[in-house]
């Protein structure tokens, strides 16, 4: 979990909200028991989406980030998809190796 914390803070510092948000959306769509458990722990620690208040180039509002962590659907006026943790919001699940590579 500390790696996820470092990744999030680093992405905020470097303005990499898009990459982090894509990663965290894929993580929340976990299909394995192990990843689902990790997502629950990350969610409880509030390691959600990076908002436009944190990084100017982010397209995620505070309301969308809140809804994402709560597991609620959110239709952004800026883009047609939602912030929920559904398969429609995520391109394809990543393997554990892919997730580890993104953290490194």
TrEMBL record:
InterPro entries: Ku_C_sf (IPR036494), Ku_PK_bind (IPR014893)
Taxonomy, superkingdom: Eukaryota
Pfam families: Ku_PK_bind (PF08785)
Residue ranges annotated for the Ku C-terminal domain, each copy included: 2-69
Protein name according to UniProt: Ku C-terminal domain-containing protein
């Amino acid at each position: 979990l500390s790696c996820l914390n470092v990744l999030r803070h680093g992405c905020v510092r470097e303005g990499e909200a898009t990459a982090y948000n894509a990663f965290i959306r894929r993580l929340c769509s976990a299909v394995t028991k192990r990843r689902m458990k990790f997502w629950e722990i990350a969610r409880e620690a509030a390691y959600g989406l990076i908002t436009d208040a944190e990084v100017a180039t982010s397209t995620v509002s505070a309301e969308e980030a809140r809804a994402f962590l709560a597991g609620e659907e959110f239709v952004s006026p800026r883009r047609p998809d939602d912030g929920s943790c559904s398969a429609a919001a995520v391109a394809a699940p990543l393997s554990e190796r892919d997730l580890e590579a993104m953290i490194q």
